[in-house]
Amino acid sequence: MEILLIAAIAKNNAIGKDNKLLWHLPDDFKYFKAQTTGHYIIMGRKTFETFPKPLPNRTHIIITNQKDYVVPENCYIVNSVADALHLCEEHQQQKVYVIGGGQIYEQMMNVATGLEITHVDVTPDADAFFPQIDPEKWQPVSVVTHAIDEKHLYAFNITVYKKK
């Protein structure tokens, strides 16, 4: 099973503050939607709660310690990263995406088979961070660049990494 961490990260590895994203990048959102649609997505409870409703055409796996946490249809609750991965295996998923937050990325970094990272050219104040990408373990295999334009306040590169 492919386990892919997908995130947009700043130069200082920032991914969020006060449970909010740090930027609005429509073309990055389009990439995220194109990659994750039709797949299982794994996230922490706080990440799930940032959505007004579940993302369409994706099966959500929410990791939480809260008992009796209620979720809509097409969502699963588990208590650990191991349980999330086990559920994906039981459902015979070939590819799953981990979409946040910082603690979940940290726990999944060693089991991930690939990273799909939008590197945003900014260094914001933040309280949630993506783990350091170790160049000894991860090799970039493709990069797509995006300049600042009327819809994007920041330049960014979407880089796909494979484990060495």
From TrEMBL:
Per the UniProt record, which EC number(s) apply here? 1.5.1.3
Q: Which Pfam families match?
A: DHFR_1
Q: Could you tell me one molecular function GO term of this UniProt entry? A: dihydrofolate reductase activity
Gene3D superfamilies for this protein: Dihydrofolate Reductase, subunit A (3.40.430.10)
Q: In which pathway does it act?
A: Cofactor biosynthesis; tetrahydrofolate biosynthesis; 5,6,7,8-tetrahydrofolate from 7,8-dihydrofolate: step 1/1
Domain of life of the native organism: Bacteria
Domain named DHFR: residues: 2-163
What is catalyzed by this enzyme? Answer: (6S)-5,6,7,8-tetrahydrofolate + NADP(+) = 7,8-dihydrofolate + NADPH + H(+)
- Which InterPro entries does the UniProt record give? DHFR, DHFR-like_dom_sf, DHFR_dom
- Its top-level enzyme class, in one word, is oxidoreductase
The UniProt keywords, alphabetically, are: NADP, One-carbon metabolism, Oxidoreductase
Family annotation (PROSITE patterns): DHFR_2
The text of the family note is: Belongs to the dihydrofolate reductase family.
The protein's job, in short, is: Key enzyme in folate metabolism. Catalyzes an essential reaction for de novo glycine and purine synthesis, and for DNA precursor synthesis.
Output this protein's name. Dihydrofolate reductase
Organism expressing this protein natively: Paenimyroides ceti
